[in-house]
TrEMBL record:
One Gene Ontology molecular-function label: metal ion binding
Residue span, ATP-grasp domain: 90-293
Domain of life where this protein originates: Bacteria
Biological classification of the source: Bacteria, Bacillati, Actinomycetota, Actinomycetes, Pseudonocardiales
Descriptive protein name: Glutathione synthase/RimK-type ligase-like ATP-grasp enzyme
Organism of origin: Umezawaea tangerina
Keywords, alphabetical: ATP-binding, Ligase, Nucleotide-binding
Length: 295
């Protein structure tokens, strides 16, 4: 059995987080090769193409989705990718009863009334915190300028100040089953002149902000919200949980202490294999092998 792990030209073999997966697949008799999604590789010859580090698609979304549609066997599948590459899904999940960070959608031509307090303005199509702005209370000029610069659909969310102390908790599901979790440190600097972007430097590729990650053991409340988010997504998309080869549920703590969904990553998330037990790569390999058997 042959698998392609789809990447991008800037990082043709990803950033190293998935390295152990290749060996774990080999242990199961599955040969895996890396290839940038737009490289012209013979993806149709593979038994399965697994989307991994396709982090340059944000400026070329129609082209990327057309490529996804051309791949006979893709994971996650095309309908999931099409839905998940536009963060408007946050509104759908909130409507489905998942506790989420309050989200307002903005489209070009809108003249927003900026809310009181700190808030975040980010593109609806984006990865790695690129293009995300944390706006200080009352800094309408910064918000107006960023909104004009984005010139695209965007999300407006109140900033969750607990992130500064506790970061985000990312819960990873493989083949629909919970696998492991890790914490991501705060990424956004306080608003203010000259200090409106991510706290960390961008990776040399410019595709994402460098993250501070550490292992995590989520409490029961976070586990419940993450499970609810995966269940709601499967229902909305009309798929089985097992059809989601991977899912990363990013949670923050709201002002009242309860976990809230910040993002649900189903297209190209880092899965934090370097931040958890070595068996996680084997769990992913097993989920890939199961997906191969189902096709």
């Amino acid at each position: 059995m042959k698998v392609f792990l789809a990447s991008c030209a800037e990082l043709p073999e990803s950033d190293g987080d998935d390295d152990a997966v290749v060996d774990a697949l080999a242990d199961l008799g599955v040969h895996a090769d890396w290839a940038p999604w737009d490289s012209g590789a013979d993806f149709a010859s593979a038994d399965l193409v697994v989307l991994r580090s396709t982090w340059d698609y944000t400026e070329r979304l129609p082209e990327f989705l057309a490529w996804c549609a051309s791949v006979p066997r893709l994971a996650n599948p095309l309908p999931v990718v099409r839905w998940n590459t536009d963060k408007s899904y946050m509104v759908e999940l909130a409507d489905a009863g998942v506790p989420t960070v309050p989200t307002t959608l903005l489209v070009p031509g809108d003249e927003p009334e900026w809310p009181a307090g700190e808030f975040v303005l980010k593109p609806a199509v984006g990865v790695g915190s690129v293009g995300v702005l944390r706006v200080a209370d009352g800094d309408r000029a910064a918000a107006d300028a960023h909104w004009k610069a984005l010139d695209a659909k965007a999300l407006l969310q109140p900033y969750q100040a607990t992130v500064d102390q506790h970061g985000e908790t990312a819960l990873v599901f493989l083949g629909g089953q919970y696998s492991h979790a890790f914490t991501k440190g705060a990424m956004l600097a306080p608003g203010g002149a000259g200090n409106r972007t991510t706290t960390g430097e961008l990776d040399p590729t410019g595709l994402f902000a460098v993250e501070r990650l550490s292992p995590a053991t989520p409490d029961a409340a976070r586990r419940r919200v993450a499970e609810d988010a995966v269940d709601a997504t499967a229902k909305l998309l009309g798929v089985r949980r097992a059809d989601l080869l991977y899912a990363r549920v990013d949670l923050v703590t709201g002002a009242h202490g309860s976990p809230l969904l910040l993002e649900l990553e189903l297209t190209e998330p880092s899965l934090g294999f370097r931040e958890t037990d070595p068996a996680a790569a084997h769990r992913f390999a097993s989920a890939i092998r199961a997906a191969l058997r189902d096709r």
